[in-house]
């Protein structure tokens, strides 16, 4: 069984999609072993508890610097024999040491078609730019921000009368499809990373 850690900062709807996918038997060889939040009142922590999953808040403000914070993150992860880390609305850049410790075992969901609209508020960036197609991307995490090898993408149209919020909601529905799909592929050992390219084996 692959033990999964999910890092979150907020609402946790993507976390929920993973939990639901596992509970419905869609990803037989995985379990969410711990959910870690950098935000105390993140609803994602409650979702975890509702499913009997360990929910851990690590307060970044109680550490002298990012390095110390991530040491604590590594310590907690170390308690669970983690085989896969998911970033599900985790609003921090993961540092080098965590990436090196879990090379090609960290997966992020991003609400745009990378490499367009990296960073925060990608749906609003895309809407404000005036694109007619946006979407979402699941990718391995490397040292850059939203730059790692792409696993899956799904296109989502921008429709007449949309605003940034209606577009974001349409994208979110697809996030909830492709994130569990990518996790399933990873857990089944079907993803191979060759440089930038992710090959399905
Ligand atoms: C999702 O749209 C996710 O793609 C995005 O935050 C939202 C979290 O929602 N992530 C990023 O923007 C990463 N920079 P959720 O907490 O309901 O899953």
Automatic annotation (TrEMBL):
The protein's name in its UniProt record: phosphoribosylglycinamide formyltransferase 1
Gene3D superfamilies the UniProt entry points to: Formyl transferase, N-terminal domain
One MF term in the entry's GO annotations: phosphoribosylglycinamide formyltransferase activity
EC number: 2.1.2.2
NCBIfam families attached to this UniProt entry: PurN
One Gene Ontology term from the biological process aspect of the record: 'de novo' IMP biosynthetic process
Cellular component terms per the entry's GO annotation: cytoplasm
Family: Belongs to the GART family.
Domain named Formyl transferase N-terminal: residues: 3-183
